[in-house]
Fold these 2 entries.
Entry 1:
Amino acid sequence: MNTHEVVNQPPPLGDVDLHAHDPVLGRLVDEFDASWAQDRLSEFGRIAGTRETHELAEAANRHEPELRTHDRYGHRIDQVDFHPAWHALMDRAVSHGVHSLGWTEDGPGSQVARTSLMYLDSQVEQGHGCPISMTASVVPSLRMAPELSSVWEPRLLSTSYDPSFRPASEKAGALMGMGMTEKQGGSDVRANTTAAVPAADGHRLTGHKWFTSAPMCDAFLVLAQAPGGLSCFFVPRFLEDGTTNTFRIQRLKNKLGNRSNASSEIEFDETAGWMVGEGGRGVATIIEMVIGTRLDCITGSAALMRQSLTHAAWHVSHRSAFGKTLIDQPAMTNVIADLELETEAATLLMLRVAAMFDRAPHDEREAALRRIATPIAKYWVTKRTTAVVRESMECLGGNGYVEESPLPRWFRESPLNAIWEGSGNVIALDVLRALRREPHALAFLGDEIMLDASAAAIGQLAAAREMLETSENHESDARRIVECLARAWSSSLMARHTAFGELYDAGRITESHAMFGTLPHCDELRDIAGRAVPTLA
Ligand SMILES: Cc1cc2nc3c(=O)[nH]c(=O)nc-3n(C[C@H](O)[C@H](O)[C@H](O)COP(=O)(O)OP(=O)(O)OC[C@H]3O[C@@H](n4cnc5c(N)ncnc54)[C@H](O)[C@@H]3O)c2cc1C
């Protein structure tokens, strides 16, 4: 008797063309002015979903970055070594312009095109997206220091990845990160104590940063207390004379996920920095970067949903139980269809926000909308992700829970986008702040929702408005308000861009079921579930 016959196990998921597989991406890219980028996205989608990418992702997370604080003679060197798989992923992202396309193609749809690249790039491995996102997002803040920007922008937008530890002037390309969070205050950056003292050339910074990711970047935007108040500083790893700036990497964080990426604690000691933006306006300056990385949090989360679901759908369409392929078992059809609706809604929110980034510079209405839409989508999509990844994992049964599967890695990754770049409460309170500062923004969002509003969406919008008018404690109601707006807006986008608006409403608004797989039964469930199943390239 053959005791080791393997039957009814799904074949390994081979190469998937992530662009062709996506049910909404290509269509929406056309709609949001980026049809010119379709060939580029298509080419990248074929690369981003290969077995090779999965292998690189696995290796980059298994062989974690290592900190070398000193050389063998005792000199401080403050360098981090990464596995070749990390460099391969970085090289691929940079050479395809995942960090730069939004600025190098400065025409209609350029941010939509870049966001779509980021979405494809972030599906299989997320850690390397951190320096990619920060480099892409730093451009508007850096432009507030035109002298620095004229020298550094060409370096940052270069499509050559150069990880060598040398002065940026000698390198083929450069990357940037940011340091805001301190021990005593992350969200409340006003509590920062790092001090910046004016010097003959720039300022000298002394203090610490409790979280600074990707510390091998070539330069950072850093918040510090200057005589005029909290200000934003440009801090390079090397000075103009080719010597190193003082940038002590004290240790690397031992994180739940995101393990391919290094996140560090930094100390500054008379570290040279140059002010960006006006003195005392540090938050207003760096927020231009943060709003970009917030869009990438939405993007990374939508990507995680899509890739987890792709694996779940592959598994259930190749495994049988109780006499049927799992995806044909009605309870499983419902789960996959429900996850597909959630993932499509997240992708629609992501692309609509990206379109606001394109249009905001020329359109006041889109600028006001962007101000509230980015945190609403950041709050909603990043928080929904963990539930989607968890349910996708369960679709694989026990196979989903073992470390040979990528699902545990994606599950560990899944809460992160909701924490950094503003945690949930901070983001919900930011929506309220934006509504106070941009009083028309709610009316603009309301107009957008009303373009394709179901009764359920109208009800959610009305509930948000009523809470805003009558709440006895707006902060206490902040999450309720944001959730109503997110549901109403998602419902309207689903009605406009898919045929599943009503089902979305039933699953998210009119019926109050807590879990996925609770859509009311209808004939469309099979077709919707089918949209999630990948075909091999
Ligand atoms: C892997 C990783 C990498 C990171 N990389 C970087 C980096 O590169 N650069 C950087 O600057 N930072 C980085 N961070 C830090 C991150 O941005 C902060 O952790 C985050 O902003 C929250 O700040 P905090 O940790 O100080 O928590 P706190 O600010 O103490 O917040 C704790 C909780 O309180 C809530 N809260 C805060 N204020 C209020 C309020 N007024 N009302 C109600 N609730 C409130 C928050 O929503 C949160 O849930 C990183 C974090 C992680 C996990």
Entry 2:
Amino acid sequence: MRVADRVSPPPILTALLAQLVAQLVTPAITSAGDDPALLLQGALAALLGLALRLPWWWLPVNLLFPLLAVHTLSLGLPPWLFLIAFGLLLLFNWNSARERVPLYLSNRDTWEGINRLLPERETLRFIDLGSGLGGTLFYLAQRHPQHHFCGIESSPLPFAISWLRCRLRGLDNVELHLGNFWREGLGEYDVVYAFLSPIPMQQLHDKCRDEMGRGGLLISNSFTVPQNPPDESITLNDVRQTTLHYWHFGTARRRGVPTRRSHAGA
Ligand SMILES: C[S@@+](CC[C@H](N)C(=O)[O-])C[C@H]1O[C@@H](n2cnc3c(N)ncnc32)[C@H](O)[C@@H]1O
């Protein structure tokens, strides 16, 4: 079972539930519709959110949400502005609510760090799971024209931007796909790179262990797997002191796991 399926419901739905309950309960405490009443409603939602085990940073979000929502609506902004803002957020963060992996980008020092970790082989197949705007792939692809680089991204807008950037750079050793990497077989890749969140890491580790061929390498930016500590970790000298964790897999390839090549042929 996928981790994302086990983590239910997503925090945003829990927060919504807390807000709905607070909105129902508040009129029983006060009939006023002023700012203190809205703050009381927010405080109830925030406490409920904590009781429902939302991370601490939801507390200020839940606390201020009713107050800010009412005041924003009172500005009389045209409704299409909200629709556009919502649409952009959705296109940039297609499945963040479910997967709990937002878009943030690896920096240049990290690209260089990954470059140093690449095994010395004549040809390599490298995949970036959740490739964002494609920066990591483009950096490596320019330096290693003999290797093949693949990116898979589920959010339409980052995918479209990366696709355009790739065309503009004329990189023919980069392949980009819009899709969900959990449906991607990893058997044909030598190196898997992931910059995700703590949530999917155990499952990702297990997927790589089960599917990658002999000598497969998983590199994770920042996030490790408590039950399966990395073979090694290096900390880079960048502003955020990025740590790259990596695991080598020595098992033979498993049969029957679909790969992108087999998808294409299907
Ligand atoms: C933290 S960003 C990393 C972007 C890029 N790899 C980098 O290092 O610059 C994570 C990306 O993974 C994408 N993502 C999350 N879950 C995914 C999934 N199941 N399939 C494909 N992409 C996913 C998100 O949309 C987001 O763009």
